[in-house]
Amino acid sequence: MHSFNDDGSPGRAGYRRSAGSPRGEARRRELLERVTDDLAANGLVDFSLRRAARAAGATHKVLLYHFDGVDDLLKQAISQLREKRTGNALAAAAEPTGPGLAARVRAMWPMLSGDDPGLSVLDQAIGLAMYDPERYGWLGREASRLYLPSLMSLCPADWADRRKHEVAEMILAALRGFLVEWRTSRDTEGIAAGFEALVRALEREEAAGTA
Description:
Blueprint: H1 22-42, H2 49-56, H3 60-66, H4 70-93, H5 101-113, H6 117-131, H7 133-154, H8 161-185, H9 188-210
Helix pairs in contact: 1-2, 1-4, 1-6, 4-5, 4-6, 4-7, 5-8, 5-9, 6-7, 6-8, 7-8, 8-9
């Protein structure tokens, strides 16, 4: 049986952890890296402790020594992929083709919408959170906690924090919608049109702030 914390994230499964031991932590990172690679290559469908153990080259008991169960392992693997995606997007945003927030968002988009298999897993995770919010809602909440501060950091420094948060929420909702649409319909023309509308909205928002 799976256990969950009050915020919906996976809870402890009752197994001893390897935390605190440098050797154990190194082993945990090695196992997580292998499971993350498998998740990126093969997606969320049929993800299980048995599959994770096979990918890690270990037994399920070894995984349960290092992790709090299959949901904890899934959460940590997805976090690894999200951190990589966010890092790549922010690196691209640091070198925009023009001035302003809109240009930074435009520079980020290719890093978010590429054909890297790992990226599709992250969008699958959002779909899973929508399909079964009671069990997997934390996948969506964790994404927001990670992305919103990054998007707020791209906003003009002289904006109030509330305004930064509101605009970041708009960007996140729009980009998330585009990504889900891309994975489900492959309507590149429609998504491109929607993205350009988002860029124009951001340009107007910035212009209003300087008027």
